[in-house]
Specification:
single chain, 593 residues, alpha+beta, 5-stranded mixed β-sheet, rod-shaped, disordered N terminus, membrane
Length: 593
């Protein structure tokens, strides 16, 4: 199972798929739309040098609107697809280094045999530059065998010559044709012994318990590095190399769990048998001299297909009648693999590899080869660990967010409760303040009523008591003056100063005890006496006369002054005051003499 499909960020939405037969290069940019792929741009070049072919292909795609960059996969005949039998249970996988050694041990001789197909002779025949009879004649000369052209002497002369040089010297080919094949050979064959592999498990072998089929793709490591380097120079990352034949099985519907698929290419046919949705057989037949129908029939019969097995055909549009011809020759129903993305430049293998790389096909139908070998087990991958760490961080953040939300919910609930209580308290406070305001207003009203009552009482006291008492006092003072003023004293005036408040009594000098009484009545008298004795006598008489009215004479003063008619005399001034003890004062008992 390919866990890469669960790592969404590892799957591009667009993918460049290229395919080469060694002498041309095709490419198409496919976009993943839901569970389907659409062709955005496609191009082809007949350039033999693959380094220049990649540059030409990218330029043609960009002319169509492709922006470049991204990821790509490549189908190449240099990649071998084969089934190997390994005593490895897929449910109990071996460590990656050990598994790599087991696979390499099985596929190394098969890959060496596969590379013999890319000899100069095979390439010259495959390209139609010479016939098989001419190639056989050249090989006979190389091996020192006698031939009709020159006998043993000619064979000895050419036995140590290279195939291409000998074929050119014999006039079978041109130098340009040889150069083209030599250039193509550089991208199909390598001399290094290191192998890059990719594998995917299939079903168990029924006749060998504990042994399982494994579908393997392999290629020389130097070729992988060359292709990766060429694509990288143009800013494109080459993810994987796929075999030229064998990827069409990824296009089969899921219902085709038991079927045989024939994949037709110019000069070859590749057959794959599926049993219980697992690959249990492969066969490739190659013959450039035969027609596509003959090649497909040879491959079909070589696989010993049972009559009840469904047959699917994946062929290019260059052979539109191939399915009908197979139906007629085999007398069975032949299902054609059809897809709207298939065209003259997009082969079934290219589309199958694209769907496999984009995670849209069954992982077990085909397998690619990546630089550096297969990825380690999922828990050991850097991106998986990064994803796991990211998920852990997201879970921690989510837990923190949930905790904060719970706490916020609790706080909000508590706040709502407090707000509700505060609203009740606030309303109660408003009611209390309103009641206090009403009480204060009532207090003010009562205070105003009390002040009004006191004012009315003061008016009553004034008009009912003070005015009559004062009238009597004034009359009494006038009566005293009438009785005490003689012929030798003249009254100048009597005045009652404005009294706004009770005045404290001024203690006369020399009096040790301070008089704390206050004045409540005050009359100021001015008189004139003809002599000083009369003046002093007037003061004494007034002192005695006012005592019954609880008055005292204060501030009496006699001074010489002109009087009426500018007569010489003495002016007399005095004050008549009434003194009372202040409220709260306690009378002190007189000291015993």
């Amino acid at each position: 199972m390919n866990f890469d499909r669960f790592l969404h960020f590892a799957k591009p939405s667009e993918l460049l798929v290229c395919e080469t037969d060694g002498f041309s290069l095709r490419g198409a940019v496919l976009a993943k739309v839901g569970n389907h792929v659409d062709v955005l741009y496609q191009a082809k070049t007949e350039q033999v040098d693959m380094a220049e072919a990649v540059a030409d292909l990218f330029a043609a795609l960009k002319a169509e609107g492709w922006k470049g960059g991204g990821k790509a996969v490549l189908l190449s005949p240099a990649v071998l697809s084969t089934l190997v039998e390994l005593p490895v249970n897929p449910k109990k996988p071996r460590p990656l280094p050990q598994m790599l050694e087991l696979v390499r041990w099985e596929v190394e001789p098969l890959l060496m045999q596969h590379m013999t197909r890319w000899s100069v002779g095979h390439l010259l025949v495959g390209q139609g530059y010479m016939t098989e009879e001419q190639a056989l004649a050249v090989m006979d000369l190389q091996q020192g065998k006698p031939n009709q052209a020159g006998g043993l002497e000619l064979s000895e002369k050419f036995s140590l010559r290279r195939f291409g040089e000998l074929a050119e010297e014999l006039g079978y080919i041109k130098r340009s044709q040889l150069n083209a094949c030599l250039t193509g050979q550089e991208w199909l064959k390598a001399d290094d012994e290191q192998i890059e592999c990719g594998w995917v498990p299939q079903g168990p072998l029924a006749d060998v318990p504990g042994t399982f089929n494994w579908l393997v793709s392999c290629v020389n490591k130097s070729l992988v590095q060359r292709w990766v380097s060429v694509f990288a120079r143009h800013g494109v990352k080459l993810k994987q190399l796929y075999p030229l034949t064998g990827c069409s099985g990824a296009l089969l519907p899921k219902s085709a769990a038991n079927a045989v698929i024939l994949e037709s290419h110019p000069g070859l046919a590749f057959g794959t048998r599926l049993a219980a949705n697992a690959v249990n057989g492969q066969h490739q037949y190659m013959n450039l001299a035969k027609s596509p129908l003959e090649i497909c029939l040879e491959s079909y019969h070589a696989m010993h297909v049972a009559p009840n097995e469904a047959l699917w055909l994946a062929s290019w549009r260059q052979t539109p009648d191939l399915a009908g011809e197979l139906r007629q020759m085999l007398a069975i129903d032949v299902h054609e693999l059809e897809h709207e993305a298939l065209s003259d430049w997009v082969s079934p293998g290219m589309l199958g590899a694209a769907q496999h790389a984009l995670g849209l096909a069954d992982d077990s139908r085909c397998v690619g080869v990546r630089e550096g070998g297969p990825l380690p087990a999922l828990p050991h991958r850097l991106e998986f660990r990064a994803a796991a760490l990211l998920v852990s961080l997201l879970l921690l953040v989510a837990a923190a967010e949930i905790s904060l939300l719970v706490r916020k919910s609790a706080i909000d609930s508590r706040k709502q409760e407090v707000d509700a209580r505060w609203k009740v308290v606030d309303e109660a406070t408003k009611r209390i303040n309103a009641q206090i305001e009403q009480i204060n207003q009532r207090k003010q009203a009562l205070a105003q009523q009390k002040a009004d009552q006191q004012r009315y009482q003061a008016l009553l006291d004034f008009y009912g008591g003070e005015i009559p008492a004062r009238t009597a006092l004034v009359q009494g003072v006038l009566g005293i003056l009438q009785n005490t003023v003689g012929d030798d004293v003249v009254m100048i005036g009597i005045d009652e100063p404005d009294k706004t408040a009770a005045l404290p009594v001024v203690t006369p000098p020399g009096n040790a005890q301070q008089d704390k009484r206050i004045e409540v009545e005050n009359f100021r008298l001015e008189a004139w006496a003809i002599n000083e004795n009369a003046a002093q006598s007037f003061i004494q008489v007034m002192t005695q006369a006012v005592q019954p009215w609880q008055l005292e004479v204060r501030d009496a003063l006699v001074a010489a002054r002109k009087g009426p008619l500018n007569a010489d005399g003495f002016a007399v001034t005095m004050r008549l005051v009434r003194l009372i003890e202040p409220e709260g004062a306690v009378a002190k008992p007189a000291k015993e003499g």
